[in-house]
Amino acid sequence: MKPTDNLMDQHRVYKLVLTGGPCGGKTTGQTRLCTFFENLGWKVYRVPETASVLLSGGIKFNDLTPDESYNFQVNLLKTMIQIENTYFELAKSCRRNCLIICDRGVMDASAYIDTDKWERMKNANGWNEIEMRDNRYNQIVHMVSAANGAEEFYSTEDHSCRSEGVDLARELDYKSAAAWIGHPYFDVIDNSTDFDAKVNRMIECVCQKLSIDTGDRLLRTSRKLKFLVSGPLSDIQFPSFQDFNVVHHYLQTSGQRVQTRLRKRGQNGHWSYIHTTRRPHVHGQSIEVKTQLTQRDYLNMLAQKDDAHFTIFKKRRCFLVNNQYFQLDIYQEPSHPRCRGLMLLETYTSLEGDYLKRSLPKFLNIVKEVTGEPSYSMYNLSLKEDWNNTKKFCYSLHGELQRDHDCKAGPSDDE
């Protein structure tokens, strides 16, 4: 890959998984999302749900022996990977920006397989979850089943492969969401609004990740919130979670109000690499462009590391509570003394007031909300100089209240 200034010049290929529980709105949402992006001039590919294609051919799980069922799941996954790869290759050669909408992704299979069989399947085929979940797709959107929060609208009448009752649908909904816990860009779209607004929220969250300005075409309700958390933590109080090691480096930039950073994120010796460029928009809004990197690109770009910043080390814990996806960042040594013991909880939500308070994890000691506070931005936390003696401290996200012209694009949101 060429130097960072050229990363934004390439056409974009964005791989999105649209998943969810039964009767969650995936089919309608996919159609609306496709139309929206085609109207923006993007090429949109829609990868069919592999399980539905195979099951519509007369396969019934109740008729299969355990060995036949296991082998079917293995072949289903291999077929899914090959079908997706076909679309991925087409998108690479397309001259337009491409959105690839996958109707479920490879991790969805783990929701329908016993843990022991899933581990056996991964080991036998050389699969690991960093590659299958984090590196394979840019974003995951989970559409919560109507059986969870909109029960009066739950139905199986219009789906030939669906027969779940409400209780089973709720169970499958949670399992399919839990399968994706740990992906760095995972959004859960619940049933807190009517269905039309639910679909708009789904389209909105995709546009947000791509830094696409939707103007007044969609109601912008979801925002990123950050909370200060104090310890101690007890693992047994958490629901199912995934822990990751995360390393951030800020890079030197040629532009005065531009930030660039690298992120390495992984578990069990497997890593994903992201480059982020952050710059202010002409209308006062900052935009971020994220690019997935190979390990070689990552190592080459480390030569551009900004010596004014410490490397940031974190343990990131990802989990679901009340249909909300949370990331808890626990800062690790070595670090500046200001980061010692620091824990920050982040989530995307459209909830406010008492509804927001009730959605937060009760097992965490949340001290206060710190969204937008410069003292808790990773950019400022990583500065080597004392805040009182540096010209680089940034007070404002968009640069209105910066101390001087040395401050760049403002405090960066952690990623």
UniProtKB/TrEMBL annotation:
Top-level taxon of the source organism: Eukaryota
Ranges annotated as spanning the membrane: none
A GO BP entry: photoreceptor cell maintenance
InterPro entries to which the protein is assigned, alphabetical: CYTH-like_dom_sf, NadR/Ttd14_AAA_dom, P-loop_NTPase, TRPL-trafficking_regulator
Entry's Gene Ontology molecular function annotations: GTP binding; phosphatidic acid binding; phosphatidylinositol binding
Domain NadR/Ttd14 AAA: 15-196
Protein name stated in the entry: NadR/Ttd14 AAA domain-containing protein
Organism in which the protein naturally occurs: Chironomus riparius
